[in-house]
Amino acid sequence: MLTVLFAALPFMIWVGLLLAPWRPWSTRERLEVDSSPMSVADLSGITVLIPARNEAETIGTILAALQKQGNGLQVVVVDDQSSDATASIATAFPHTRVVGGRPLPEGWAGKLWALEQGKSQVHTAMTLLLDADIQLLPGLLPALLEFKQREGLHFVSLMADLRRTSFWDCLLLPTFVYYFKLLYPFALSNSRNRYVAAAAGGCVLVDTEVLRHIGAFASLRNALIDDCTLARQVKQAGYRTWLGLSRGAVSLRPYSTLVSIHDMVARSAFTQLGYSAWLLLAVTVLFIVAYGGPFVLLGLSLTRPWALAAWTAMTLSYLPILRYYRMSPLWALLLPLSAAFYLGMTWSSAIRYWRGVRSRWKGRVYSH
């Protein structure tokens, strides 16, 4: 009897996930570019604010893509103490101002300090916060602006399409988006509930007055998960936010090796858990039961039906992400392997923290 009860646990976890009314596994929250010809958009009400630290490889591509979005768009690049040609490349583009970043003060995260320095250069009604590795395909920014105005939103963000060029990024990057959606269900984040908020910081279109009202970016200067922190402050101030997927915002940063993906995940995984060892243990137990349980129980005839049902529900929950990114459904069979890597990277993040390193990124170490 106890064996059957244990076998039912992973089944209940995965079926419960599929039946959750907010559908965290769904990809229905999305914004794509219309492929039909469209008139040249007036973007004179938007300033693009780009924090850039050693982004010589991508900054030219990013700025060239912005030139194709429409007329009147202003761009501000904050050169965050780069040691490469980031500033000189950016200077060559029209309607682009380059701000030389000052040294990072104590108590600030690098990206937020760069945005804080650049915000004084924004004099338009809206600000597009854009990472220096996010390329916008033609028509994406006009579509984002039209959607924001039509829905009466104050803050809209897009989860960029991450590059998939190797076994490791195919195995782990769709799972990254999948876990993000489980942790921050888009339907709940996009609701009027002020206590659930999320954003993808690589591409955010926000009313400039909203940023001023909430005191950004000084009000969240030490936040390592700055996008979700910003969205939470915007919602708690009474404004409306929206987060969705898009294939029209493309990340150019390569994550083709396990080491590069580990560094990306480990810099904030333990932060997501509030640096709580108890939550880390709870997540570990949950992963073992949810992913390891069906695999182990397949070997017992008494529990095999439960294990097969749980595995089927698990696979069904992952298929929408694979379908959205136009990947083979066979990758769903490797979801337990991907989960094992993510659990390991979360433990790695915790061990870093216990050794005194809160986060490490772009050559900077943030201690606690």
List the helices and strands and how they pair.
Layout lengths: L1 H18 L26 E7 L6 H9 L6 E6 L6 H6 L4 E5 L9 H9 L7 E5 L3 E3 L3 H12 L3 E7 L5 H17 L2 H4 L13 E5 H7 L11 H11 L4 E11 L6 H9 L2 H4 L4 H21 L6 H21 L10 H20 L2 E5 L2 E4 L1
Parallel strand pairs: 1-2, 1-4, 2-3, 6-8
Antiparallel strand pairs: 4-7, 5-8, 6-7, 9-10
Largest sheet: 8 strands, mixed
Write out the CATH superfamily name of the largest domain. Answer: Spore Coat Polysaccharide Biosynthesis Protein SpsA, Chain A
Number of domains: 2
Q: What proportion of the residues form beta strands (DSSP E)?
A: 15-25%
| CATH class descriptor name of the largest domain | Alpha Beta
Structural class: alpha/beta
Supply Rg: 21 Å
**What general form does the structure show?**
globular
| Total number of strands | 10
Low-confidence stretches: none
How do the helices and strands follow one another from N- to C-terminus? HEHEHEHEEHEHHEHHEHHHHHEE
Strand order of the largest sheet: 3-2-1-4-7-6-8-5
The CATH topology name of the largest domain reads Spore Coat Polysaccharide Biosynthesis Protein SpsA, Chain A
